[in-house]
Write a structure and sequence with these properties.
The structure holds two protein chains of two kinds.
Chain A (H helix, E strand, L loop, with lengths): L2 H8 L15 H4 L1 H12 L5 E5 L8 E7 L2 E7 L5 E5 L14 E3 L3 E2 L6 E2 L5 E3 L27 E5 L2 E5 L7 H16 L4 E11 L3 H7 L6 H4 L2 H4 L9 E5 L6 E6 L37 E8 L3 E6 L2 E9 L5 E10 L4 H10 L11 H14 L26 H14 L2
Antiparallel strand pairs in A: 1-10, 2-3, 2-5, 3-4, 6-7, 7-8, 9-10, 11-17, 12-13, 13-14, 14-15, 15-16, 16-17
Chain B lengths: L10 H20 L10 E11 H6 L6 E3 L2 H13 L6 E15 L3 E14 L4 E16 L2 E11 L3 E3 L7
Parallel strand pairs in B: 1-6
Antiparallel strand pairs in B: 1-2, 3-4, 4-5, 5-6
The chains are: A alpha+beta, B alpha+beta.
The structure holds FE2/S2 (inorganic) cluster and fe (ii) ion.
FE2/S2 (inorganic) cluster binds next to loops of chain A.
């Protein structure tokens, strides 16, 4: 390939700084950008969410998942330690675990039955010394030199993260005080997993990273509350970031209602409809504060949410430049009584791929992705609230999206 | 109209009535008569769409779970007036309508279904494949679902789910 072409596709032309945030659409559709993200972000100096500890409570419990598009195994060993390895055999690369989850005393690759312990160390190679003098591995073959690729693992309040990086700061430092506090607020007690949902969205993963850092769209795209006359208009809340701006926390306070004036010209401000069964929204106060909504977006692949009494992690697994899978794991607490669990499950109708107030996010990602494919020389225009990556104590802002892009450019060297 | 008593019916009559109900049910959705869809259920009903991934582990999280007829109506009002999604058609294919148990009041049925989805591009894709676990009761207005539980194999939902199954 000619150098000219190569350069054209390897560079990202960021528009000159005009004081707001403009993101070239190329970063959503360029395969080279995507490949580079796998190395610099998902396999680079960042921590990725991989599991809830409650998903693998016992020794030998494991689950398979992805960091970016690299398949990994998350497993608990005999000492109770959680280990994360790349799901690719040290022999010739086959997947070592093919199920979503399960329990095994050790891992065995089906191809030639190389066996590994729950730390990822190689513990068995069939025909290692050959059969009747034939074959066998070389004399200097040492099993300890052929483990599965091991990742660094950290955990905060039952959320497990892993990184390929030897140099990145500790998990707590990476998350920063804002994120750690928010995680500990929600996950203050032993977690009980209530189930998973998987949503396959045909768009670039960063469109979802933007979406979950975007308080601007909440009342405009998601019309459920508005339609049923349940909207609390100038809802109080915050749009905050950590020091590096890579993580974002959006919160809203319950019933901080005022004027309806500002919403008169919105698409569907009417109370023509009301819920036939309002039990859908019946909840119970469970935190010390009045915060009714938290969308904590942790770079690069996690959203931790509290929407009323629904608690969930959403994990982004990239599936190429133009798709990602969003895995929703809804949870409650071990000490939830029956009624509390019923509340969480009924409110579960609000979230997930069929969620009355969340289904539109997948749609938003897809309609952007499909329409920018050939607009490679164009950029988005992100300026609501001033276009600066600043913490504000309201929700009429896109500052947290600006923060995402600021960190993204640093991480990618753009 | 007198209420049917299941135990008075022959196996063939019962099979016919149940298949007729299933056909009417999927036709109602496929023909986009969703306002009528709640009428297939009794007042105090359970409608649930849950992945096989969760069902097999005994975990309760569902894509949709409604425990009253009023909730079904709210779903449709929301779909028509609030939710934003790509326009599409459904086509249900049902087979293996298999009556599992009969009492005077309730017939339990397991049925395979396949939902094909066609979006505005014109392409048709397999959207959801699974089984219905139904409990059917007789009312003055004919047979209705006391419970309809769709357990789907297709645990990776494409884009989103808004239309009932
Ligand atoms: S590839 Fe795993 S044992 Fe050969
Ligand atoms: Fe949203």
């Amino acid at each position: 390939m000619s150098t000219i072409l190569k350069n054209k596709f390897n560079e990202v032309n960021w528009p000159e700084d005009r004081g707001v945030c403009e993101v070239p659409y190329q970063v959503f559709t360029d395969k080279n950008v995507y490949d580079s993200e796998q190395e610099k972000i998902f396999r680079g100096d960042n921590w990725s969410f991989v599991a809830l500890e409650a998903e693998i409570p016992e020794s030998g419990d494991y689950k398979t998942t992805f960091i970016g598009d690299t398949p990994v195994i998350v497993m608990r060993d005999e000492e109770g330690q959680v280990n994360v390895v790349v799901n690719s055999c040290a022999h010739r690369g086959a997947a070592v675990c093919r199920e979503l989850r399960g329990n095994k005393p050790n891992l065995e690759c089906v191809y030639h039955q190389w066996a590994y312990n729950l730390k990822g160390d190689l513990i068995g190679v069939p025909f290692r010394r050959g059969i009747q003098g034939n074959g066998g591995m070389p004399k200097d073959f040492k099993m300890q030199e052929h483990p599965l690729r091991k990742l660094r693992v950290g955990s905060v309040a039952g959320l497990v993260f892993a990184t390929f990086s030897e140099t990145v700061e500790s998990l707590e430092d990476y998350l920063g005080p804002m994120t750690v506090t928010a995680i500990k607020r929600i996950c203050s007690k032993p977690i009980k997993v209530l189930g998973d949902q998987r949503q396959y969205i045909k768009g670039n993963w960063k469109l979802y990273a933007e979406n979950t850092r975007d308080p601007y769209h909440a009342s405009l795209l998601h019309l459920f509350h508005m339609t049923f006359g349940l909207y609390r208009s100038s809802q109080k809340g915050v749009s905050h970031m950590d020091d590096t701006k890579r993580h974002s926390m959006l919160t809203a306070i319950k019933d901080s209602d005022d004027s309806t004036e500002d919403f008169k010209n919105m698409r569907s401000f009417n109370t023509e409809f009301k819920l036939n069964d309002p039990s859908l929204l019946a909840g119970r106060k469970e935190f010390d504060d009045d915060v009714s909504l938290v969308i904590l977006a942790v770079f690069p692949n996690l959203v931790l949410q509290q929407i009323a009494n629904t608690l969930a992690v959403r994990q982004i697994c990239t599936k190429g430049v133009d798709a990602f899978e969003l895995v929703w794991t809804q949870f409650g607490f071990e000490d939830d009584d029956k009624e509390m669990q019923a509340i969480r499950l009924k409110q579960g109708n609000l979230i997930g791929p069929a969620g009355l107030i969340s289904m539109e996010d997948g749609e938003a990602v897809e309609i952007v992705h499909d329409s920018v494919i050939r607009e490679q020389d164009k950029s988005s225009y992100i300026a609501m609230g001033g276009g600066k990556a600043e913490n504000v104590d309201h929700l009429v802002s896109e500052g947290t999206i600006v923060g995402f892009w600021k960190y993204y450019r640093e991480a990618m060297g753009y | 109209m007198a209420i049917l008593k299941f135990s008075d019916m022959t196996a063939m009559e019962l099979q016919f009535q149940v298949e007729k109900l299933q056909s009417n049910y999927v036709e109602c959705i496929d023909d986009d008569r969703l306002e009528q869809w709640p009428e297939f259920f009794v007042e105090d009903c359970l409608y649930q769409i849950i992945s096989r991934e969760n069902e097999d582990r005994g975990l309760p999280v569902s894509a949709i779970v409604c425990d009253s007829n009023a909730m079904l109506i709210d779903r449709i009002v929301s779909l028509r007036n609030a939710n934003v999604y790509a326009e599409h058609f459904y086509r249900h294919i049902i087979s293996n309508v298999n009556i599992k148990g009969v009492t005077d009041e309730v017939v339990s049925v397991q049925t395979n279904y396949l939902v094909l989805q066609t979006r505005l591009s014109g392409a048709t894709e397999i959207y959801n494949s699974g089984k219905y676990l139904d409990e059917i009761v007789a009312t003055e207005d004919g047979l209705k679902f006391k419970q309809k539980k769709a357990v789907f194999d297709t645990y990776q939902i494409q884009s989103l789910m808004v239309t009932p199954i």
